[in-house]
Amino acid sequence: MRIDAHQHYWTMSRTDYGWITPELPVLYRDYLPGDLEPILQKHEWNGTIVVQAAPTIDETEYLLTLADGSESVLGVVGWLDLFDPSHREHFERLRRQPKFVGFRIMIQEMTDANRVLEPSFVQALREYARDDVPVDLLVKSNQLDALNALLDAVPGLRGVIDHIGKPRIAEQAFEPWATQIARAAKHPNIYCKISGMVTEADHQAWEEEQFRQYIEHTLSVFGPDRVMFGSDWPVCLLAASYDRVMEIVQGAIPQEWGAKEKALLFGGNAKAFYKL
Description:
This protein is of the alpha/beta class. The protein has a single domain (about 5-275), classed as Metal-dependent hydrolases (TIM Barrel, Alpha-Beta Barrel). The chain contains 9 helices and 8 strands. The chain has an 8-stranded parallel sheet. Helix 5 (about 145-155) packs parallel to helix 6 (about 175-185) and helix 6 runs parallel beside helix 7.
């Protein structure tokens, strides 16, 4: 099964998406399943994992409604606020939907990433880890120390780091990201999405070779069994087309990887992680 493990849909008439403004004209429009399906057919994808793009329960419910009407949506990663005492009630309601496959923690949006180490947050995440719930982890590279401390505190977490932890590709900064992401990879239940890289580069002047060391390092430390491709469409359109995103990743796959390893990267691991 071929799966794009990370993409988004949205409707601008909703009020969830404060970060999408007219200053981002490429994104400031509706993006719905009908827009992506011709691209999915071109690349012979069986479907996608749609990930929340707004920190609201309402948006998660909206995405689940979209998923019900689209065969190409295999799963929805929603949003939960683990600081909200009602987070478990929201989760139990969402999990009744057949295409709800997990939730995302948006550490990226926290002014102080160390808030994830507060006892109530750690305890909440331990409960979801005990239940083997898939959790997406959105972090910037300067927050990886906090993430690693959280992974140490919740060692059984079934988690996936989005966008390879957002290294500073535009600056070609490799350390300390490389050491930090390797530390995260030591947790056997932590996966990593090969996604979201073009928007961490110079949107107008990137070169394909600039991504190679980051992709190669991520594939090396996580191995073929814990990585998954995600287009991050349509956010990727700020810097590259869907086709170019595919070409960047395909060009950095180790030569020794055969059909089995590539099948895991392009769908097998996403299917296993999200329990499809």
